[in-house]
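I have been asked to look over a protein record a colleague put together. Thanks in advance; the entry in question is below.
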Amino acid sequence: MAALPWQHRNWAHLCDYRQQNRIPQALLITGNKGLGKFHLANQFAFSLLCNEPTIDGLNCEKCSSCLLIKAETHPDFIIVRPEEPSKGINIGQIRNLLTYLTLKPQFEKYRIVILNPADLMNNAAANAFLKCLEEPTEHTVIMLVSEKPSHLPATIVSRCQKLCVTKPDIETFTSWLTARNTKTAIKDILSIYKLTQGSPFLALDYINSESLTLRDSCFKAWIDIAHKKIHPVIVAEGWHKLPESLLLSWITSWIIDIIKCYYRINGDQLNNPDLKESFEELAQQVELEKLYLLYDSILLSQDRLSTSINKHAMFEEILIQWNQLNINKTT
């Protein structure tokens, strides 16, 4: 498993832990979505379990331990993740983990546990998991992967070493992306870089799923609502079938870009530079104070996505609030 090009510094840091024989018992790997945090956690886990790691610290992929990892049957490697999509990590899973950790490792190397995403532990699970950190077992390394570390209890965060994965520069991003998709124009890659905040894996998903086209369609509906050309309830009816977190991230970026244009910030600092003209037009028509209130509402909605909130009603509320910002129709 090769290191991702924008993670070389992170990988060197992890290799330093190993060379100094100071492997952390708990490691919190953070960073935005789509930066390969889980990839990095796996890479470090494979390296620690490997019998003959390479000079670069990577696993050899040939020893008995690596073959067990490849077959997903290594007894000293466990991944804890939500049992179902859109669900959290529950206390039953953590109790099973605690039982697992009472047993001795079957091999002489490390025992590795990865929680991904760790911030999806519910309160009961997080409280139970704290015992893993308070009473660590020998040669056990626990890695927590999270894009929302602020959602983790401070008692857990304070007991972990931290490693933050940052986005690549535009050159590294473009090189990695074009190597995997040669059909995307450079101008589109620049837009996607801004839209995904430089997250390569998220960008690749955008391209493969044609999300940029979907974003343009949703933005047109957003503009039509502002110009009173379509009722927000009709739009919400179609939107609730789309990925909620993706839609909310788009709306958030649109509002931020309108605010930036209101204050005449340089266009290359926009999240959606290809939509600059529309944002500049909206910035002259919208009531800024009410726009900030809508922004606050959307942030609250993002925090509620993991609950049983009615997604259809949520989008109706957001779009109606957007419709009522007193934006005058332009000709």
Q: What stands out?
A: The longest strand covers residues 140-146.
